[in-house]
Amino acid sequence: MDLSEKLWAIEQIKQLKARYFRFMDTKDWVGLPTLFTADAQADYRLAMLDPADPVPPLETLAEHQLSGRDAVIHYIRSGLTPLVSVHKGYMGEVELAGTDTARGVWPMTDELFMKEGPIRFIRGQGHYHETYRIEDGAWRIATIRLTRLRLIMVAA
Fold it and tell me: Which of 12, 76, 103, 113 reaches 20 to 30 Å from 134, CA-CA?
């Protein structure tokens, strides 16, 4: 792979991640599945925990660890449909691992606005840790894990 091919692959992955944020926030449930491999794996076990609090045993958070594109999309859709979300990704680090695989780390901020319930607003900062693979001729997310540095929840 020459330099221009490497740069093009990295740009395609950056565009993939931009679409991920946009599709979640606009609730594009038709487009979102096209961003993931069929065998995608997601780990959101630490996504809703305040990093300042003790971490419970991870096996107690198993419902936030998902296998397969359909399960990942169902989880995201179920969580985001009842609220307004604003996701921002910053300065991703993308490293090609081969001609059809790559890794990335994306600093992020998300804001979640709930219409009902005891919590009305959540702002989090952290990182997405991802791997990518070419599937059906396009770069797609193969694994995704969200970690938090900070989480602020505001009650109603």
Answer: 76
